[in-house]
Design a protein that fits this description.
- There is one protein chain.
- The chain is α+β, with helices and mostly antiparallel strands.
- The protein has helices at residues 3-14, 19-32; strands spanning 52-59, 65-73, 79-82, 86-92, 95-101, 107-114, 124-132, 145-149.
- It has two helices and eight strands, in the order H-H-E-E-E-E-E-E-E-E.
- A four-stranded antiparallel β-sheet has the order 3-6-1-8, with no helix packed on it. A four-stranded antiparallel β-sheet has the order 4-5-2-7, with no helix packed on it.
- It is elongated, with a radius of gyration of 31 Å.
Length: 150
């Protein structure tokens, strides 16, 4: 017999009016004993998810770009920060629209912060529009490429 059960029996003998309470308490304590949990299982965060950033790299056929608009889509984009250039970003419904201005050259253009860098293949980036630096004339974006890399 466990100590808890003995204590419940002793309490029931000493106080006859509390016999029902003692029996309920003993049943409850026996049900709670052991190595199995009685409540909900604790939420354990996924240890494989690593928050971080993906780098947006731009490939452009022109040397006179002054403004680029690009879009990024994917699950749970946290934010986008431009690298060394001025820019503005709007996040809406799992898609980010960003405009970057300045003397734009091919290479790393922005950092996209995501909750899990292991899911990089689920994100997509593309150039929406481009403009000439001095005249703001729109460029043909068919030869532009935007890629997200780790």
């Amino acid at each position: 017999m466990t100590y808890t059960f003995k204590l419940a029996r002793r309490m029931a003998k000493n106080h006859p009016g509390r016999r029902t309470f003692a029996m309920l308490a003993a049943c409850f304590l026996v049900a709670c004993g052991g190595s199995t949990p009685t409540g909900a299982a604790p939420i354990v965060p996924s240890s494989s998810a690593i928050a971080g950033f993906l780098t947006l790299e731009l490939t452009t056929p022109n040397t006179n770009d002054g403004a680029i608009q690009f879009a990024v889509s994917g699950p749970s984009i946290d934010s986008i920060r431009t690298i060394g250039l001025d820019g503005a970003t709007a996040l809406l419904n799992g898609q980010a629209q960003t405009i970057v201005t300045g003397a734009i050259v091919p290479g790393a253009l922005a950092r996209v912060y995501v909750p899990d860098v292991h899911r990089a293949s689920e994100y997509r980036a593309w150039v929406v529009a481009a403009a000439v630096r001095t005249t703001y004339q729109l460029q043909d974006v068919s030869a532009y490429r935007a890629a997200l890399v780790r």
